[in-house]
Predict the structure.
Amino acid sequence: MLVQEYFKSRKQLLERSLKEFMPSPDDYPKNLNAAMNYSVFSDGKRLRPILFFATYEMLNGRKNISRLDRLLPAAAAIEMVHTASLIHDDLPSVDNSNERRGKPSCHKKYGEAVAILAGDALITKAIETLAKLKNKKEAVTAIEILTRAISTRGMIGGQAVDIISSRKKVNKNTLRYIHLKKTGSLLQACTELACVLFKAEDNLRITLGNFALNLGLAYQIVDDILDEVGSFDVLGKEAGGDAKQNKATYPSIFGLETSKSKAERLLRDCFNAIKNMPNNDILLEYINMIQERLP
């Protein structure tokens, strides 16, 4: 199967599941449900749930797509959490971004209060959706994995340190922590969920978890670089947001060329981690996609 066809078919599968699990925008309270749907169905690339699918199918083999049906609650939950993080990131008190994916941010369209609640509601909806996994033991483990990834030890913790560090001089270890937690934690959850649902051995789960963390860190370094030298077409929002917020970034600490070298080294580590695994073409494409974003 062509890589492009894989992404298209798995994205379509996810879209159908999200429509099944998300509340209708016409349900009461309409404003809140409309805001949740506006952000979830805003033409996202769905890279995280597709990473989840691809990891599972690398382990299990690529069979009839209907074999993925039992995974759909986990895939939808991943996307709900990611969308919630974007809604909260864009708020004036955080990154103060008025646009997301070329459209007004959730708080610009529905107001700050509704945007905060929409993000909160999507996180709780994600947990509710994970509970729909048919194997209840797997469901409990999946909830533990995703909530840990979201928690103060994961995505929310990284965001907190990022906010606290704004307008301060931070060292490279703090910056690495921010990126690993803000971006890497959810990617790691994608591979861990796939491993749990496949019943992979612990060593494989650890290897793929490290792959995901390095992938996330490389992605965020490239994002830092693009925020300095990228365009609206590439970012889906205006560049220079980090500088306006006086946030620490890899280019601000290491310079552009060293930052590029660090991203390239992380991507090589990702490649080496999975190069000998069968059915790895989609995960290799993730590495290529990040590599191609480097200016």
